[in-house]
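User: Predict the complex with magnesium ion.
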Amino acid sequence: MSDLNSDDDDAALEKGRLLFSRKWDFLLGVPSIRHLPPEGPVEVAFAGRSNVGKSSLINALVNQNGLARTSNTPGRTQELNYFIPASGDDVPELAIVDMPGYGFAKAPKSRVLSWTGMVFDFLQGRSTLRRVFVLVDVRHGLKPNDLEVLSLMDKAAVSYQIVLTKADKVKPPALQKVLSRVHEEIKKRPAAHPEILVTSAEKKSGIEELRAAIAILVDSD
Ligand code: GTP
Ligand code: MG
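Assistant: Here is the predicted structure with magnesium ion placed in the model:
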């Protein structure tokens, strides 16, 4: 890596640190698309299969346990939950959206359908949505329903980035294997960000890099 790049990396890490050193608040839960707040700040959303660790990763990001509700039971998050910095600004510079998980086998069919409708509408129609972080459990890799969601975002030209979660659960060789498989899968996908992030909310690893990636998106607005 050149010096210029590492200077840029350092600046992004510092911006990320600042962005998440303040307190964050829950703004609102959105049960259907017509309840969305007016478009304002840059938004980043966390998507992924049920139980992959979306809410846990948001808590690690803002360093506030319990901001986003987490659970052992898949399907905990059922609305689009909006979080914003507690700055008091009229238009905050960033909003984080925690999404309900998909692929929850035990959910009633009606709920699965309404999830699909709402989330697909949100992903396709939200002009302030700068990137979707698609979380993938490092033990499972990309599943067919992940690929469906990626294809939808490729079609809708919604930028997304894969974030491997629960990295504490596997050893380095297994991690490398998943990384190369996921790289192979996304390299042909037009809306995929090429860099894959590796995180553990449990061990707080990869969190600074995720903060930096988000800070760059806020800055480039
Ligand atoms: P839904 O809202 O149901 O879609 O789930 P979610 O993706 O928000 O997952 P959540 O954050 O609620 O976490 C699900 C389970 O995984 C919880 O029991 C967490 O404690 C656990 N978990 C989350 N992140 C990690 C991690 O980095 N390492 C380990 N070992 N467990 C984790
Ligand atoms: Mg959740």
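Residues 48, 50-56, 70-72, 74-77, 100-101, 165-166, 168-169, 200-202 surround guanosine-5'-triphosphate (ligand 1) (CB under 6 Å).
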